[in-house]
Amino acid sequence: MTLLTETELIRRSQKGDKHAFGIIVNRYKKRAYFSALGFVHHHERAMDLSQEAFVKTWQAIKKIDASRNFFTWYYTILKNSCINEIRKISTSAKPYSQVDTNTLEDIEDYGMDTLRSIEKDELKQTVWQAINQLKENEREILMLREFQNFSYAEISEILNCPQGTVMSRLYSARKALKEKLTTYFSDEI
Amino acid sequence: MKKLDNISKDRFQALVMKAVDGDLSESEKSTFETLIAQNPIYKKEWEEFKKLKEVTDKVQLYEPTQEEWDMYWNNVYNRLERGLAWLLLSFGTLLILGFATYKFIEEFYLSPNIPLIITIGITAVFSGLFALTLSIIREKLHIRKTDPYKEVQR
Q1: Are A168 and B80 a contacting pair at CB < 8 A?
Q2: What is the Cα–Cα distance from A19 to B131, expressed in whole angstroms?
Q3: Interchain contact, B77 vs A29, CB within 8 Å
Q4: Which of A87, A125, B18, B87 has its CA 20 to 30 A from that of A60?
Q5: CA B153 to chain CA mean position, Å
Q6: ipTM attached to this prediction
Q7: Confidence at A68, pLDDT banded by 50, 70, 90
Q8: Residues of A in contact with B148 (CB under 8 A)
Q9: Which one is the CATH code of A104-182: 3.40.1170.60, 1.10.10.10, 1.10.3370.10, 3.90.1150.10?
């Protein structure tokens, strides 16, 4: 069953086959989680929101065009859920604009010395803060390309815009990030 | 000439993004190299984007543990099942409560054998209980939304 095409899996899900839907969820769970993380910057909330969006997708599964890419449909639901969550949380004690260090991961080995570790933490926080200061559409495209490694074609489908627009938006986003980081890394950039 | 500048600028933006991501084809690579060789502003921008990429490459997002990934579908599945369960439970409860209220009104309030003082007393007790329940639910919901210490283990 895992070898079935996405179209067939969506059709089976539309007939109430939860096992088929489970295969779709397992295929997209990582992308779903990282997409949510890009919006809310909090591990547990990203897990929760991405799972909740799958539940909402299941509830609306009959409306999905089986011939279209599942993730594009799912992403719209997820994005709305995340935006609603951000609006809710912005009135509470800890806004998402604050850096949650749990969101970031060290990709180097654990053998690094303490000084380098501190420098790396500072770098990560600075980059993350700069990303948070970007406009929402700039941050979104940057997260999709830079941290989730979606191809230009995939981003074009997810954001429902031509590939040329993806390229120019990505250019603007990176340029904006570069300008934000110039103040922090004047000797580096 | 102005139009040509715009075209080459758009072309450069697309090419420099592909270059940053290592996605240039052989022909694009040669076009890109020509562009940056001819234009020092483009060359400077390319150098800056390269440095930016080096910086962002050092930042990766938190990867959940294998156990969390393994439980992912189970959690979604539980929510799917519980959603239906909650719907059935709410529907059933409303149905039973509605019927019970109807029977209570029919047999208690319309009965000529129950003294007025008891009727008033019972009405006051039920109204009080209802108001208290609503108030507690409202308070709990309000605290859950705004409590900054809700994730602290007590």
Answers
A1: no
A2: 45
A3: no
A4: A87
A5: 23
A6: 0.72
A7: confident
A8: 92-94
A9: 1.10.10.10
Pick A188's closest partner by Cβ from B55, B64, B77. Answer: B55
Which helix (H) or strand (E) segment holds residue B7: the answer is helix B2-20
Q: Which residue of A has its CA nearest to B145?
A: A92
CB-nearest partner of A25 from B58, B63, B73: B73
Query: Can you give the pLDDT of all 154 residues of chain B as single tens digits?
Result: 344 455 578 888 999 999 999 989 999 999 899 888 988 999 999 999 999 998 888 877 778 899 999 999 999 999 988 877 888 899 999 999 999 988 888 887 777 788 888 888 888 998 999 999 999 988 877 766 655 544 443 3
The letter for the amino acid at B32 is: F
The domain segmentation of chain B, as residue ranges, is 2-57, 115-146
Of A18, A94, A147, the CB nearest to B148: A94
Provide the shortest C-alpha distance from residue B25 to chain A (in Å).
14
Those residues whose C-beta lies under 8 Å from the C-beta of residue A65, and which sit 6 or more positions away, are A73
For residue B62, give every residue at least 6 positions away whose Cβ sits within 8 Å of its Cβ, in sequence order, or none.
Answer: A37, A43, A102, A103, A104, A105
Q: CB neighbours of B88 closer than 8 A, spacing ≥ 6?
A: none
Token code pair at residue A128: 């993350």
Q: Quote the Cα angle for B77-B79-B80, to 5°.
A: 65
Domain topology for A6-89: Rna Polymerase Sigma Factor; Chain: A (1.10.1740)
Comparing CA positions, the residue from B39, B23, B123, B91 lying closest to residue A166 is: B23
Q: Which residues of B touch A52 (CB under 8 A)?
A: 79
* Closest residue on chain A to B44 (Cα): A189
